[in-house]
Structure formats: C-alpha cells, structure tokens
Amino acid sequence: MIKWLRNHFDREMIRPLIYKVFTRGILALFAAQLAHFFLPAGGTLSSFSNLSLLLGFIFALSAVLAWLRMDGMKIPHAKLPRMKRKDPPFLTGDLADHIDDDIVTFDELDQEEQNACVLLADLILTVICFTLAAIV
C-alpha cells in the first residue's frame, strides 16, 4: 500500500485531499445530526455510535468504488449542468500572488489523481467513523 501511495500521490494533491475530507466529513456529521433528530429515540440508529458505524460502512463502500474506478471500471455519472461561478473581485489582492507554487484544485488534477484523492479521502473518513463508533 505504501508503494502504491508513493506512485500515485503527489505533493500537489494535499490541498484537494484536505478539502475532500473536510467537506465529506462535515456532510456526514450533518447527515448524522439529521438522522439523530428525525429518527425515533428507541430505534437502532438513534445512537451516535450506530450512526458513525453506518457512515463508516458507507465511506468504505465509496472507497471500494473509487478503487474499482482506479482499476479501470467505468461508473456512469449523471451529467448535471454546471454553472461557472464568478470569483469576487479582490480589493487588496490575492495571497496566491505571493506564493511561488501554483494552487491546484481538484478539477485541475487528471482523472487518476482525482480517483486517488477520492480513495484516500474515503479511507481517512472510514477510519475516523469506525474510530468514533468504537469510542462512543
């Protein structure tokens, strides 16, 4: 696994990986809070440990799908129209103007690097959710 990680992971993938982990983690916590709020108190998914265990299995399934996508399996995606957003004008300048390295977003990565980012983010969140399920 470490050899695979060295071959597929570049330094420029750190920022998109952090963004993926953070946004998916926040969405998972939001979904857990919604489920905790709307499900009955005596149900099996009412406790946080059961919810985090379920989220861990969902992230593990997503990691398996990302692994299969890296292996060459084509998963059809729904083509939703994307609107280009306008960046707001910066009055004082951008901090990125003073950094030598280019900031690489997730969309600028090639397909293999995007799949590696998704796989690593799902594995990190799987470990976090299973750890929370074991502790709580």
Major sheet, described briefly? Answer: none
Number of helical runs?
Answer: 4
Distance N terminus to C terminus?
A: 29 Å
Helix content: 55-70%
How many distinct beta strands?
A: 0
Rg calculated over all Cα atoms: 18 Å
Beta-strand residue percentage? under 5%
Write the layout of secondary structure elements.
Layout: H1 2-8, H2 14-38, H3 48-71, H4 111-135
Helix pairs in contact: 2-3, 2-4, 3-4
Give an overview of the whole structure.
With 136 residues, this protein is mainly alpha-helical. Helices cover 60% and strands 0% of the residues. It contains four helices and no strands. It starts with a helix and ends with a helix. The relative contact order is 0.20.
In short:
It contains four helices and no strands. With 136 residues, the protein is mainly α.
